[in-house]
Amino acid sequence: MSLDAIILLLDSALRLSTPLLFACLAGLYAERSGVFDIGLEGKLLASAFAAAAAAAMSGSAWVGLMSGMAASIVLALIHAFACITWRGSQIVSGVAVNFLAAGLTALLGQAWFRQGGRTPTLASSERFREIRLPGADLVADVPLLGPLYSQLLSGHSLLVYIALLTAPVTWWVLWHTRFGLRLRAVGENPAAVDTAGINVTWMRYQAMIVCGALCGIGGTYLSISQSAGFVTDMSAGKGFIALAALIFAKWRPMQALGACLLFGFLDAAAIRLQGVHLPLIGETPVQLIQAAPYILTVVLLAGFIGKATPPKAGGVAYVKER
């Protein structure tokens, strides 16, 4: 494989891993606080629709971003209210969020735009476009380093660079700030945290707000950066793959970055296999290409993860002792 082909593959992997990374880090904040959130898929989908619809109606990508984040935060707060305030099942609540998002996006899309659930195709000014880094054109002809900088590192939208920065920022917040220490403590031993005078409920709500905001950026990326509008079910299971990446990373942010880049690479490689003739199979079936990322997810989780221990208080509603 030539250098150009490798760079194109890595470039595609970076783009495909961006929504996974946002959703994975969103789930990390939630689950580190003790709230399991399998509604990441629904929040990605709802924010993708809200961002595309707002961008189409306002003509501004930034309005789309704010709308996508707002829609995701609303769903995160619904989940929080159900499982933190009312102490309902976190799994059932997450499933309900996924169904709610799938139904509402299809219904509102058809009602507002009359295009079978789609939004109108967005103009260039209504999307987050690629950014050329300084000096990218000047070093493009330099062997090896030039293509890596000008083609792989440069030429992505702002949201891709934000995603890459979010992982180290999350590591710093969770391990080097008072907020992060309290958040992790709430997920491990909420009774001890409560005894110290920290409001467990408020800490978990804060985690869910951050979760909603990050999912909102990931969904926005899907519809107004990677694509030029919303289509029905465009999240395509990315929220569930993000959950798998979170378990694969053992609930740590920098490992989550690596896991999402790995899953993005596998997805990009599967796309590159389209039309390739394989021994004993012939031309690669489209169904195999579509299923490959999910098959590889199961294989990796089953065979390479080892023991992954979630936060001790994860999935358990906290009841304050009288």
Describe this structure in a few short sentences.
The chain has 12 helices and 4 strands; from the N terminus they run ααααβαβααααααββα.
Structural notes for this entry:
The structure is a single chain. The protein has 322 residues and is mainly α. The protein has a single domain, classed as ABC transporter involved in vitamin B12 uptake, BtuC. Helices cover 68% and strands 2% of the residues. It contains twelve helices and four strands. The strands form two sheets. It has a two-stranded antiparallel ribbon. Helix 1 (3-32) packs antiparallel against helix 9 and helix 2 runs antiparallel to helix 3 (61-85). The longest helix has 30 residues, at 3-32. The relative contact order is 0.20.
SSE arrangement:
Blueprint: H1 3-32, H2 40-58, H3 61-85, H4 90-113, E1 130-131, H5 145-153, E2 156-157, H6 158-176, H7 178-188, H8 190-195, H9 200-226, H10 238-248, H11 253-272, E3 277-278, E4 282-283, H12 286-303
Antiparallel strand pairs: 1-2, 3-4
Report strand %. Answer: under 5%
> What is the radius of gyration?
20 Å
Q: Write down the CATH class.
A: Mainly Alpha
Number of domains: 1
Mean pLDDT: 89
List how many beta strands DSSP finds. 4
End-to-end Cα distance, whole Å, is 66 Å
**Uncertain stretches of 5 or more adjacent residues:** none
The biggest beta sheet is recorded as: 2 strands, antiparallel
Q: What oligomerization state is this entry in?
A: single chain
Helices, by number, come to 12
Which fold name is given in CATH as the topology? ABC transporter involved in vitamin B12 uptake, BtuC
Q: What is the element string, with H for helices and E for strands?
A: HHHHEHEHHHHHHEEH
Q: What's the CATH architecture name?
A: Orthogonal Bundle
Summing up helix and strand content along with how strands pair, one would put the structural category as mainly alpha
Instruction: Give the proportion of residues in helices.
Output: 55-70%
Strand order of the largest sheet: 1-2
Shape: globular
